[in-house]
Amino acid sequence: MTAHVEVERKYKVGGGYSLPDLREVTGLSTAAEPRTLTLTARYYDTADLRLARRGITLRRRTGGTDDGWHLKLPRAKGGRDEIQAPAGEAASPPPAELAGLLLAHTRGLPLVAVAEIRTDRTERELLDRGGTVLAQLVDDRVTGVRLEPREEGVVTWRELEVELVDGEEDVLDAVGEHLTGSGAQASQESNKLSIVLGVAPAPDGYSGEMRSTVQVMSAYLSAQAARMLAYDPRVRLADHDDDSVHKMRTSIRRFRSILRTHRTILDRPRVKPLDAELKWLSDALGEVRDLEVLQARFRAQLAGLPGGRSEPGWLLDMRHQELQARERLRGVLRSQRYLALLDRIDAMVTDPPVRRKAHKAARKQQRKIVARARRKMTDAYREAGKAPRGEDRDAALHKTRKAAKRLRHTAEAAKPVLGKRAAKIARRAEKLQDVLGDNQDRIVAAGRLERMAPEPGGASDASDAYALGALTTLQRYDDPLTDLPSTWRKAADPKLVKRL
Known about the structure:
alpha+beta, globular
């Protein structure tokens, strides 16, 4: 399999539309000679179109330079990750490696052919003065038919796509402005399949006015569940080494924060088992994430030491441990326990087990919930101030950090009804969380290095031992709490809650 990020803009045009002279676009010098081709694609989904409702497409396409299976996963801030696999035989089912990436969405349901689309394409490369291909413009005349469930009729239309190649996104903006100035209309459709199926990706969260606390809570939980699912395929990829594990884990943490800070409106006996399963999943992700953080920290600190040195053997061992942890994590994501957890999350979002007070007006209750979360944070900080220096104080500050994190998430959830003031509380809680998080990272790093220290008199590579000793010293004398007093005063300012 191969993967790359696809960044593009789409535009609707009529059959008689004529392209403007794109050499007038700032930064472009010329458009290469057009090339025409015919693409034929068969799209696969579950019978109830679970992928389409998430903006995901899986197809087998022939007729172009990239014949084969294409899996496209939408990204949170625009663009899509495209993963490709060889085409195989025409009648073959979707490759197991691609189907496996979608398990969290399909939950084991079979993938069936849902649509066929033929595209008569004219494509042009857009170049700068040096001959670099900045973007590609394609003019598509499309014919689509729905296969499952089968419906009569054929859908036809024409659209333009401008896809980034070796340029910056401002090139897409400039070309798009030129196209719309000549009569093209920016398309709101995420992909061709959504037009043929008549299914748009479902919005995350509650789309109407949030009048009750349960609506506020459900909207936030829905957004976090969708975010978690969006990162699931990326976490499964064997060679995918980005921030996916961290982002999936933070979605789970946000979900758990809301279950805890909104406990007064929830049926706790029914929610407690869900919280325990979310912790199980978070811990599995955390094993990988902790190793990622430690390696990044140690590599950055090693780079600052005098004299270039090769990577120490113990750091290479840590990378191997991370790869093993990733394989265990993929096993978790393939388990029936995980799929059952996803079903429970869906039930929590669509039909949360709430008490009668959850249906009362949101604004007043959200103020109370945010205030209670802030009080938990201040209580934890006071305990930290009383604790003696050392492990007791470190543990109390870590507890304060977790309380700040819950306040942040709770205030984020309340923004639709409490507005900018809730957003300000969230920002200040996040800054406190960051300061305390840096301190916790230092403590964890120091502990890890101490456990790796060689036994007295034992054999050790001199270079590796030097790196280990130097990093141990850095952890000991690093003090990320210098800004804690001022950060705390801003985060704990009682006026922030009083103004809600």
